[in-house]
Amino acid sequence: MRPLAAMRGWGRRLRASRFMALLRKEIQQILRDRQLLKLLIIPPTIQLLIYGFALNPDVHFLRLGIVDYAQVSSSRELVSALTENRVFLAVSHPRSEQDLARQVERGELTAGLVIPPDFRRRIAEGRPADVQVFIDGVDANSAGIANGYIQQMLRRFRPTGAGTAARPPPVTAAVSFLYNPGLRSSWFFVPGVMGLVLTLIASLVSAVALVREKDTGTLEQLLMTPASAWEILLAKILPLFVLLQGDVVLALLLGRTVFGLPFRGNLLLFLLLSGLYLFVGIGIGTLLATVCRSQQQVLLTAFFINVPMVQTSGAIAPIDSMPAFFQAVSLLNPLRHYIAIVRGMLLKGVGLEALWPHALALVVMAVALMAFSVSRFRSQLS
Question: Are 374 and 214 in contact (CB under 8 A)?
Answer without folding.
Answer: no
